[in-house]
Automatic annotation (TrEMBL):
Signal peptide: none
Designated name of the protein: PXMP4 protein
Protein origin, superkingdom: Eukaryota
InterPro entries the UniProt entry points to: Pmp4
Source organism: Poecile atricapillus
Gene name of the encoded protein: Pxmp4
GO cellular component: peroxisomal membrane
Length: 213
């Protein structure tokens, strides 16, 4: 047993020594990026899938748990693959040109986005929409910072909030099919199911009656 313990400790020391080698930093960063992508994707998707599945999806408990596991795996896998691809391409470009420039990030992410998130499915669609909203905010702030548009005299956020909510409710009421399915489900629950009830049970306790009365 002592010999086995010594071997494990020696292996750990060798691994830690390898991790300290600067010449392997780029390759090791790619591997850790894959790990972090997988972990982060699972942390983000699991609670979201859990809530959305039990709120809006029908089926047995086994079917719901399977759906949650599949969504979590898909999100975790895609994010891990993307980080791995992005950091790998970034390291390759920096190695070829001898330095890192801003275009490297854009090109590496474009290629990674095409390869990993190019399939139009519900998981990828949600991720892209999440990023798109933040890109629009980021580009707006950058445009002000660079002087391309003047600094607003008043906080424009109330106007943005009004336009966003006005537009999304108009789309929900009159062009519902253009909205993402989970958003349709959420809005149906909030704005349509609240119009229907029969007694106190489905007015205060439940959203819909489950009996046949």
């Amino acid at each position: 047993m002592a010999g086995a313990g010594d071997s494990v400790r020696a292996l750990l020391r060798a691994a830690n020594a390898l991790l300290q080698q600067r010449r392997y930093h780029a390759a090791l960063a790619v591997i850790k990026g894959f790990r972090n992508g997988a972990v982060y994707g699972a942390k983000i998707r699991a609670p979201h899938a859990l809530v959305m599945t039990f709120l809006f999806k029908s089926g047995s408990l086994r079917e719901k748990l399977k759906s949650i596991a599949q969504a979590t795996y898909a999100h975790s896998r895609n994010l891990a693959y993307f980080v791995f691809t992005y950091k790998g391409l970034l390291a390759a470009q920096s190695g070829l040109q001898g330095k890192k420039i801003p275009f490297h990030s854009f090109l590496a992410a474009c290629i990674g986005g095409w390869l990993v998130f190019g399939d139009n499915n519900p998981i990828n669609s949600q991720i892209i929409m999440y990023l798109l909203s933040r890109i629009l905010f980021g580009l707006s702030r950058l445009a002000v910072e660079k002087g391309y548009i003047p600094q607003p005299k008043q906080d424009p956020f109330p106007l943005v909030a009004a336009l966003v909510w006005g537009t999304v409710l108009w789309l929900f009421e009159y062009h519902r099919e253009t909205l993402q399915p989970s958003l349709q489900s959420s809005m149906t629950y909030l704005y349509e199911d609240s119009e229907v009830w029969h007694d106190l049970s489905d007015f205060l306790v439940y959203n819909k009656r489950t009996d046949s009365k």
